[in-house]
């Protein structure tokens, strides 16, 4: 009991800061919107195809970014988890390196690469593979590319932790019982790594759902996601009510997705318990 | 059912040689114990046989066929891991059934074989538990069941009984041996416990630093270790250094300190008069003597430890080295008391003192 109280005390400063600077403003925004316009801003969102399209674009970009990050990140994470510690440390540093550069700078980097006269087009045209420059910059594709680049480290690090905790002998045991590497992966490694897959996907999905800089800089002026739309409503349309409604709908969608993930995988995760045998 | 042959098997990790030119031939259905301290190469040997790691050089033959190019999942080698390596996301039943399901056997047969195996390892009623809900000993038995249920041609057991309590260990020793003989599985068991090796195996291999020190029947290794190292590993605790004299009537006199012990060699020892040698004898083979005679030396009891079926003494003053007799009759000896000890000539093992040469 005494320890519990101490722990509570330690959590107090951060909790207070969150309450004061995040929870209160959020509640305040909601109350003000509802007081001024009632539910009009919310109904407007769900009846206007323009807004629904933005929500759909946001979901699509986030789901694709999450899926591609998982597919690209998994083999890397597996390799890292089965690599001697010194090389692994070096790889962790390399993966963390992009964090030293802000998302803005990284987006400008992609603009240099993906632009009409960018490095990629010059390279492909120089090789004679294409005659017209590809239009990648200012499209959804550019946003997804930038997003994956930004978020894949989170995916890899989530996966490495879990994959590392899988005893290599468990894999060998599967082989010895006649399981091919493919069967070993589907029946043993993959099921055992689900906690890492889930945490990595939830993390990457949430971050791409709420991303602002990447869609703003790489998507061009006509490309809109939920976060960019919030800013547009405030700065361009001066419609604070709509901005508040979009923020809340975004929050609700993210929470809903997380609840679904927890409910569908919770039983399975519980069964896995500590992950390793005692 | 298969024969297994290792020829000049060598494994290196960088500059370190884990297994050095190992040769071994295992008959069908035979049970071999690999005995050695940690890092002696026994586990590495198992991993090469199972195909988890490539040998540096040498050949592994199963039924006369080289298996080096066969991947581990096609070798049909059952393996028990020291840390069990159970599938944590599967129940006991699913763990044991894993290999059978991959063989695409009918469901009814899988159920029957798993249940039989579980009753064999005394885990009936636990089939729906997850590994983390089991005690260490129970997990160990699940791992054993999983390794044996597929009836592999070769079974590799890495310290299968190390975590069991004494009573269960003896029970499982009997069970493993019974199942192994019943199914006729060629088996290699790795252990660091010489009593386990001796009681389970048809033949015992003692390894040290990647090299085979001795291969022999349990009795040969237990009674006639080929070197002081093997003797030490097999539980010999009294070691004496001395100088050999000329052999007479099959008895080799060795002068240890101020006494001379006679060792029955019957011309079998390659020791010349004047050679430095090492003598060793099992504690149980040293006896109390009532009166002085050949091979009887007196010394002072330093400590006396009651061990249940034996009393273990520490006796000094006989030779330069301490002597450790284990007396079977219950005898009380006070510290400082003088005892007369008899060293039966046919029970003493004698070796040339290689160490003196190695040290230089």
How is the secondary structure organized here?
The complex is a heterodimer of chains A (278) and B (360).
Chain A: H1 2-37, H2 40-47, H3 49-81, H4 85-96, H5 103-114, H6 119-126, H7 140-164, H8 168-176, H9 181-209, H10 213-218, H11 226-235, H12 240-272
Helix pairs in contact in A: 1-12, 2-3, 2-12, 3-7, 3-9, 7-9, 8-9, 9-12, 11-12
Chain B: E1 4-13, E2 16-26, E3 31-35, H1 42-50, E4 57-62, E5 65-66, E6 77-80, H2 92-102, H3 107-120, H4 136-149, E7 154-158, H5 166-183, E8 186-191, H6 194-200, E9 203-208, E10 211-216, H7 218-223, H8 228-233, E11 238-244, E12 251-256, E13 259-264, E14 276-281, E15 287-288, E16 296-306, E17 311-316, E18 326-327, E19 338-342, E20 349-352, H9 354-359
Parallel strand pairs in B: 3-8, 3-9, 6-7, 7-8
Antiparallel strand pairs in B: 1-2, 1-4, 4-5, 9-10, 11-12, 11-14, 12-13, 14-20, 15-19, 16-17, 16-19, 17-18
Describe what you observe in this structure.
The complex is a heterodimer of chains A (278) and B (360). Chain A has 278 residues and is mainly alpha-helical. Chain B has two domains: 225 residues, Rossmann fold (3-Layer(aba) Sandwich), CATH 3.40.50; 123 residues, Nucleic acid-binding proteins (OB fold (Dihydrolipoamide Acetyltransferase, E2P), Beta Barrel). Chain B has 360 residues and is α+β, with helices and mostly antiparallel strands. In chain B, helix 2 runs parallel beside helix 4 and helix 3 packs across helix 4. Chains A and B meet through helix 8 and helix 9 of A and strand 6, helix 2 and helix 4 of B.
Name the descriptors.
heterodimer; A: 278 residues; mainly alpha; MetI-like fold; 79% helix; globular; disordered C terminus; B: 360 residues; alpha+beta; Rossmann fold; OB fold (Dihydrolipoamide Acetyltransferase, E2P); 2 domains; six-stranded mixed β-sheet; five-stranded antiparallel β-sheet; 9 helices; elongated
Percent helix of chain B, as a range, is 25-40%
Structural class of chain B: alpha+beta
CATH topology of the largest domain in chain B: Rossmann fold
Order of helices and strands of chain B: EEEHEEEHHHEHEHEEHHEEEEEEEEEEH
Rounded to the nearest angstrom, the radius of gyration of chain A is 23 Å
| Oligomerization category of the chains in this entry | heterodimer
Shape of chain B: elongated
- CATH-scheme architecture of the largest domain in chain B: 3-Layer(aba) Sandwich
* Text of the CATH class of the domain at 39-83 and 140-272 in chain A: Mainly Alpha
> Helicity range of the residues of chain A?
over 70%
Write down the CATH topology of the domain at 39-83 and 140-272 in chain A: MetI-like fold
- The mean pLDDT of chain A is 90
Low-confidence stretches of chain B: none
